[in-house]
Amino acid sequence: MRGHDLPVGTARWIAVIGFLIAATAAAFGGLGLLGNPDDPEEPVRRYRHLIVPIAGTTYDPARPPIDVTSIGALAQLAERSERLILHHHRDGVDTYLVEDEGTLYRYVAPTGARRPAPLTVVGSTAPDRAAV
User: Fold this and answer.
1) For residue 122, is pLDDT > 60?
2) pLDDT given for residue 86 in this prediction
3) What is the pLDDT of residue 37?
């Protein structure tokens, strides 16, 4: 460039530093360390390529589902048996299922820190209080 001289040694150092920054970012991204740890759906998104939404579920009472402790464990079962993960959402609860040779595996995602709605007492004998 005209009027700007950059020694070759300095350009090489800049390239090495840029490469190290990019490699570190790629490693952290590949390990999932840059994700939002407060997001309860982050682990589920990792397996979105295996997840298929379904409209409803019916369980065989003679063969109840086996609960697994994480979506990762369910995904391992799905990948091992070359199955998809079925996703059912109802009343704010996400249920994930994998069927493998007649056995149904289930993961129920935690609902998070949702607070229940306050209870309303019907027919209470307590005196009415004016809203402040």
Assistant:
1) no
2) 93
3) 52
Whole-model pTM: value is: 0.55
Q: 107 with 93: CB under 8 angstroms?
A: no
Q: Which residue has the higher pLDDT, 84 or 30?
A: 84
Judge residue 78's burial from the number of C-beta atoms within 10 Å of its C-beta, 0-12 exposed, 13-18 middle, 19 or more buried: buried
Residue 16 and residue 11: Cα distance in Å, rounded?
A: 9
Distance CA 92, CA 57 (A): 15
Query: Who's near 111: CB < 8 A, 6+ residues apart?
Result: 92, 93
Kindly write down the DSSP assignment for every residue of 89-118, as one continuous string.
EETTEEEEEEEETTEEEEEE----SPPPPP
Which tokens sit at 96?
Answer: 């994930």
Residue of higher predicted confidence among 110 and 78: 78
Structure tokens at 46: 């990792």
Residue 88 and residue 54 in contact, taking contact as beta carbons nearer than 8 Å: yes
Closest CA to 45 of 79, 87, 80, 104: 87
